[in-house]
From TrEMBL, chain A:
Transmembrane domains' residue ranges: 28-46, 53-82, 113-130, 142-163
Keyword hit for Transmembrane: yes
Protein's name in the database: Rod shape-determining protein MreD
Keyword terms, alphabetized: Membrane, Transmembrane, Transmembrane helix
Organism of provenance: Flavobacterium taihuense
Source species taxonomy: Bacteria, Pseudomonadati, Bacteroidota, Flavobacteriia, Flavobacteriales
TrEMBL record, chain B:
NCBIfam families: PRK13922.9-3
Keywords, sorted A to Z: Cell shape
Top-rank taxon, per record: Bacteria
Protein name: Cell shape-determining protein MreC
Gene name for this UniProt entry: mreC
Membership in a protein family: Belongs to the MreC family.
Pfam families: MreC (PF04085)
The keyword Zinc-finger belongs to this UniProt entry's keyword annotation: no
Record-annotated Rod shape-determining protein MreC beta-barrel core domain positions: 109-258
Record-linked InterPro entries: MreC (IPR007221), MreC_beta-barrel_core (IPR055342)
């Protein structure tokens, strides 16, 4: 149990650092940017404490906001994602997800992909909608969401393969 | 009473979610209003410090460019100086911080964003160097933005690439002015709106800051006219696409302008409103 907490704290710090140092500087064509820091919320243990996840996601988003001058935009998207996570699990892995131990950081299956897709799209649409906050930008926002979500999913999958624990 | 407690315990996660969502959503919405939250900005100890460290590593990559730009600016200033009567009399320089610290503060951009609708820069000088909110920020090529939040050592700047920014600007050598803002699309262009159709303008004309603003002195370069058109909803005004002199995606040293009369002008205008 102790090691799970340590792994999560480590992930929290590592992903934030990676996001701020590397991915925040990446931008292609003004539309495509990646936010792989939400991998923290995606990879959080399925049967882990939900209150802790909510609080951790809130601070994860708030730190991102501090660094990108965006008020509470990231925090809102993260808290929403953390709250909706169980429903996404239910949708992608079937009703019995709580009894079988779902492991996300493993070989990519359609179920796992569905889950990541749902999570990333929810986070990105909330993020970009709140960021633009103007109805005139709606098409722009949708384009941004689709392109960035694709890029984030790609980065997430690569990162999952990279940080996958060696021991099965 | 017991029922209330059991309700709270049973729904603790949901209540926690609603509480956190409420806090973050109000912060998010507040960030779009004019009275921005002063807490969540990168002008703080943590993010300012991190950005300064990153910048001190990255700046070596741009030294050559920066040198060229500064040399060019020096050459321009020298040519101005030679035109004056006594070119030997050089203005009083503060060797440590640059030129005339009572009017201009030299600073450096340590973080730059240009990929969202509301972009901000972070500078490495703050209240300790005399930076105050609402000061203008320029560099050798043209305007950059307006100071927003100030902490002890850092400050944030509302970039001209911010859909909320509104700066008074005019066509050079005439007094037809308009408002400069950004449509959120291209980082190389901003829009000058509400220019009267009487103004005689053509492609390639220079746009400079107008004298109506207390933030910027008059005649600081902004860009050149790229396209002139009449928006469908405003028949009597031109909208001008302005190609910026500055490459806003690549900023180094900047100057913060202290406007000496801004307090007086503001007081005067407020007096007028109160009466």
């Amino acid at each position: 149990m102790n090691s799970t907490i340590l792994v999560n704290i480590f992930r929290f710090v590592l992903l934030l650092a990676l996001q701020i140092l590397v991915f925040n500087n990446m931008n292609f064509g003004g539309y495509i940017s990646a936010f792989p820091y939400i991998l923290f919320i995606i990879l959080y243990p399925v049967n882990g404490n939900k209150a802790n996840l909510l609080i951790a996601s809130f601070f994860l988003g708030l730190i991102m906001d501090l660094f990108s001058n965006s008020g509470g935009v990231h925090a809102t998207a993260c808290v929403l994602l953390a709250h909706l996570r169980p429903y996404f699990f239910k949708f992608s892995f079937g009703l019995s997800y709580e009894y079988q131990t779902v492991k996300l950081n493993d070989v990519l299956t359609p179920e796992r992909f569905t889950f990541i897709l749902l999570a990333v799209s929810t986070h990105h649409i909330t993020l970009f909608l709140l960021e633009s906050f103007q109805i005139t930008f709606i098409l722009d926002v949708l384009l941004r969401t689709v392109l960035s979500a694709l890029f984030t999913i790609l980065t997430c999958i690569i990162l999952i393969y990279l940080i996958k624990p060696n021991k099965r | 009473m017991q029922q209330i407690f059991s309700f709270i315990i049973k729904n603790s996660n949901r209540l926690l979610f609603l509480l956190l969502l409420g806090i973050s959503l109000s912060l998010a919405i507040q960030s779009h209003s004019f009275h921005r939250s002063k807490i969540i900005s990168s002008a703080n100890f943590l993010s300012g410090g991190v950005y300064e460290r990153i910048n001190s590593m990255e700046e070596y990559l741009h030294l050559k460019e920066q040198n060229d730009q500064l040399a060019l600016e020096n050459a321009n200033l020298k040519s101005l100086l030679f035109k004056t009567k006594d070119s030997a009399e050089i203005p009083n320089l503060d060797s440590l911080k640059g030129v005339l610290p009572k009017d201009i503060i030299v600073s450096k951009v340590i973080h730059n964003s240009f990929n969202v609708y509301e972009n901000f820069l972070t500078l490495n000088s703050g209240a300790k160097s005399g930076v105050k909110p609402d000061m203008g920020v320029i560099n050798s090529l043209g305007i950059v933005g307006i100071i927003d939040n100030v902490s002890a050592n850092y400050s944030t700047v509302i970039s001209i690439l911010n859909t909320k920014s509104q700066i008074n600007a005019k066509i050079k050598n005439s007094d037809h002015f308009g408002t400069l803002n950004w449509d959120g699309k291209n980082t190389g262009f901003v829009q000058l709106i509400d220019v009267p159709r009487l103004a005689s303008i053509k492609k390639g004309d220079t746009i400079v800051t107008g004298g109506q603003s207390v933030i910027f002195p008059e005649n600081i370069g902004i860009g050149t006219i790229d396209k002139i058109f009449i928006p469908s909803d405003k028949n009597h005004y031109y909208t001008i696409n302005v190609k910026l002199f500055n490459d806003m995606t690549n900023l180094g040293h900047v100057y913060i302008i202290k406007s000496e009369n801004s307090e007086e002008i503001k007081n005067l205008e407020n007096q007028g409103k109160n009466e």
